[in-house]
Structures are given as structure tokens and as C-alpha cells.
Write a structure and sequence with these properties.
By secondary structure, this protein is α/β, with parallel strands linked by helices. 35% of the residues lie in helices and 22% in strands. The chain folds into two domains: 7-216 and 330-408, Aminopeptidase (3-Layer(aba) Sandwich); 218-328, 2-Layer Sandwich (Alpha-Beta Plaits), CATH 3.30.70. The chain binds (2S)-amino(hydroxy)ethanoic acid (HGY) and manganese (II) ion (MN) (3 copies). One manganese (II) ion is lined by residues 96, 103, 138, 355, 381.
């Protein structure tokens, strides 16, 4: 194994390992198309298995598409050598369409390199250290965010998950060839804590590393607007029941109501039927992504948007219906754990995030923490997402320090 403990060596090694991934699933615009179980994401799963094998870390699939590679101390009789357990770290491989390179993979690459760093220092954990790759964290393919960790923890019914379909009508059950295993409480019980390292998705960090205090409550609401399809040229304006008007009003209302509340909202996805230039749409389907610092602000925001959109539909002669697709309540990470880790990391700042994570799902079951690596522009979920090699190397060192602390107890 290469010498990592000097910074230049670690930066160099990070760059080398990162280069192994950066071409997988990259689109011409520099963004990534790494949808769960797509050829690109399967290639990343294969990469995960190779990395684990190189390190003598047995890999387990939990039956929900989540992968776990474990470094079991020889002295640990609690677990057979191959069973995952102890201190869990990792993240996800999947991306939003044309997402950035770092969101997800950085946490997995950093976990393997942190293991290397600890081994190079001759560290021997008393508890196992397990590296995870969670499935479908972005919900880009099947529409439910953190699908893998929700299945593992029983937060979603496996039958419902199996029936979820992608835009080609392929279901998760088709992809897995079976109903997912669903809740694995006996597996979750083997873990003592979960620490996820993630690229910052904002630009609050002045230094290379931050620690998460909370995840804002957030969710996605689908809204369907029914109107009347008709000829774009011959239909009198007074005779139109145009759902695109109601849709456009809903988008503006979401922006206005979010600003009024210091919350965040956007409509990033829309489907139009029949989607023809010279036809007044019969129907428009949009997805609202809304987030706020606390549950009642978020509820108030979504309620206000739905109310105003429904009033507008009345004026447009259309009908609108909102359906919650996947929502996450307020996640407050354990403040003692967060401040202990911040202290361990030389007083790293502690800050909330508006982004959802598997750590949010696991925090209901395990002591959980997140480390953030500085993102100089704050851009994420877009090709321009970035982090410097030096800051990523600092992230590996920080994660190694945390894993050392938690796996030595
Ligand atoms: O959408 C999110 O907040 C996360 O990046 N999955
Ligand atoms: Mn993301
Ligand atoms: Mn992520
Ligand atoms: Mn995450």
C-alpha cells in the first residue's frame, strides 16, 4: 500500500483513485448520468467490490441493493469475519441527471482511503469498520430519495418499493429480479454508529471541513393539472382551459412563498401531455421540491402553494391535485457527537444542510454524524460541482481520525 500519511502523498493518491471513477457515467457536459442499476452505477458497484477485495474486506449485499465492505478486527468474536458491523461509513454512487462528480462517491472513496491511512499507521480497530454504498439515494430513477437506506431500516415497505417504476416503466422488482429484502434490523443492530462524509452543497465553509448539525426537513410533491387539450391556433382564448397557465402560476407561487418564509423551493421537473408545440396541453405534471429549517415552516409553505394554486386553477377552469412523493422530517444530529467530532477535528464548524442524506434516515436508528468537505462555489446537483484535491485529502484525514476514535472505543 502506498505511503499516505504525508499530505502530498495523500493528495496524489486521492487524485489517482478519483481518476478511476471520474470517467464512469460522465456526459459530454461534464455532468453524470449514474442512475441506480444503470450500466454506469453497476460499474461503480464493481469498482467498490474491487476496492474491497484489494483490502481484504468481504462484501455483503443486504438484499436491498446496499453494499457493505467490512474490516473486521481479528479479535472481534461478536461478528463472523464477513458480517458487516461496528462503525459504518460511506455514501451513495447514484447521481441526479447531469449531477456533479462528488455528491455521493466522495464519501465512499474517502472511506476506503481512510481505512488505508489507518492501516498504514498500524491502527487495529477493536470494533469493525464497515464501508457502505447505499442504493438510489437521489431517487433519480424510482422517485423515492434514500430508497436503499429506507428499505434497510424499514422506512418503506418492500412491496411498495418493488412496484416503483422508472420513466421506462421498469420496476425496482424487475431490476432486482425479486422483492427487496426490506427491513434488516439484525444487520442495523450490528452497527454502533454511522459517519457520512459528503461534499458540502452550499458555500458556508471557510475551512476544508465542517460537521453537520441538522438536515432541513424536505420533500417532493407531485402536482397534476388537468385542463382541456385543444388546437393552439383556432381555439378562442376565452374558450381555453390551459393547464400550463396553472402550472406556471404554481411555479411562481412556490418561489414567492419560499422567499417569504426563508425557505427553499423549486420545480425542476415537468411533463406535458401531449407535449406538442401546436396543441394546448391536456395535462401538465410538475414536481415541487420544498425545504425549510423546520417542519412547520415547510408544512406552511406547501400548504400556501397548494391553496393559491387551487384558487388559480378555479380561475383557469383547470383542476390541480398535489401528491406527496417522498418527504423527510427534521433531522437533528446528536449535538454531543457533533461537538465531540468538531473538537476532534480542531474545532471544525458545525452547520445544518438543506440536502437530504442516508445519514438522515439512519439517524433514527444509530448515533449518526456527517462531515462536509468544502465546495468552493457551493454548486451541486450540476456539472460544475467541485472540491479541491487538497480539501478532499483533508476529508480523508478527518474521516480517518473519526473512524479511529469511534472504532477504538
Ligand atoms: O436531494 C437531496 O437533497 C440529496 O442530494 N439527495
Ligand atoms: Mn444529491
Ligand atoms: Mn448525496
Ligand atoms: Mn448522502
Amino acid at each position: 500500500m502506498k505511503t499516505l500519511s504525508t499530505d502530498p502523498a495523500l493528495v496524489h493518491t486521492f487524485r489517482e483513485v478519483w481518476a478511476e471513477l471520474s470517467g464512469i457515467g460522465r456526459a459530454p457536459d461534464g455532468g453524470y448520468l449514474r442512475f441506480a442499476w444503470s450500466p454506469a452505477e453497476v460499474a461503480l458497484r464493481d469498482w467498490f467490490r474491487v476496492q474491497a477485495a484489494r483490502r481484504g474486506m468481504p462484501v455483503t449485499d443486504d438484499g436491498n441493493g446496499n453494499l457493505f465492505a467490512v474490516w473486521s478486527p481479528t479479535s472481534d468474536e461478536r461478528l463472523s469475519g464477513a458480517a458487516p458491523g461496528g462503525v459504518l461509513t460511506g455514501s451513495h454512487f447514484d447521481s441526479v441527471p447531469h449531477g456533479g462528480a462528488f455528491d455521493g462517491p466522495l464519501g465512499i472513496v474517502s472511506a476506503f482511503l481512510a481505512v488505508d491511512l489507518l492501516r498504514e499507521r498500524g491502527f487495529q480497530p477493536t470494533r469493525p469498520i464497515t464501508v457502505a454504498a447505499f442504493a438510489e439515494e437521489e431517487g433519480s430513477r424510482f422517485g423515492v430519495a434514500c430508497l436503499g437506506s429506507r428499505l434497510l431500516t424499514g422506512a418503506i415497505d418492500p412491496q411498495r418499493a418493488a412496484a416503483l417504476t422508472d420513466r421506462d416503466g421498469i420496476s425496482l422488482g424487475d431490476v432486482l429480479g425479486a422483492t427487496p429484502a426490506g427491513a434488516r434490523p439484525e444487520l442495523v443492530a450490528r452497527f454502533d454508529a454511522y459517519v457520512e462524509l459528503h461534499v458540502e452543497q452550499g458555500r458556508a465553509l471557510a475551512g476544508p471541513i465542517g460537521v453537520a448539525s441538522a438536515i432541513w426537513p424536505h420533500g417532493r410533491w407531485r402536482f397534476d393539472v388537468e385542463g382541456e387539450g385543444n388546437h393552439a391556433g383556432t381555439t378562442l382564448m376565452t374558450d381555453r382551459r390551459d393547464p400550463m397557465l396553472t402550472y406556471a402560476f404554481t411555479v411562481l407561487a412556490a418561489n414567492k412563498e419560499a422567499r417569504l418564509r426563508g425557505a427553499h423551493a423549486t420545480v425542476g421537473r415537468v411533463e406535458v401531455t401531449p407535449n406538442a408545440t401546436n396543441a394546448i396541453p391536456a395535462a401538465v405534471r410538475g414536481w415541487l421540491d420544498a425545504r425549510a429549517a423546520d417542519d412547520e415552516t415547510l408544512a406552511g409553505l406547501v400548504e400556501a402553494v397548494a391553496k393559491k394554486a387551487t384558487e388559480r386553477a378555479g380561475r383557469d377552469g383547470t383542476a390541480i391535485r398535489f401528491t406527496a412523493e417522498s418527504t423527510t422530517g427534521e433531522v437533528r444530529f446528536d449535538p454531543t457527537l457533533a461537538s465531540n467530532l468538531a473538537g476532534l477535528l480542531g474545532g471544525a464548524p458545525i452547520l445544518p444542510t438543506g440536502a437530504g442524506h442516508d445519514a438522515g434516515v439512519l439517524s433514527a436508528h444509530l448515533p449518526t454524524a456527517m462531515l462536509f468537505v468544502r465546495n468552493p462555489t457551493g454548486v451541486s446537483h450540476a456539472p460544475a460541482e467541485s472540491a479541491s484535491d487538497a480539501d478532499c485529502a483533508e476529508g480523508v484525514k478527518a474521516l480517518a481520525r473519526v473512524l479511529e476514535e469511534l472504532s477504538a472505543q
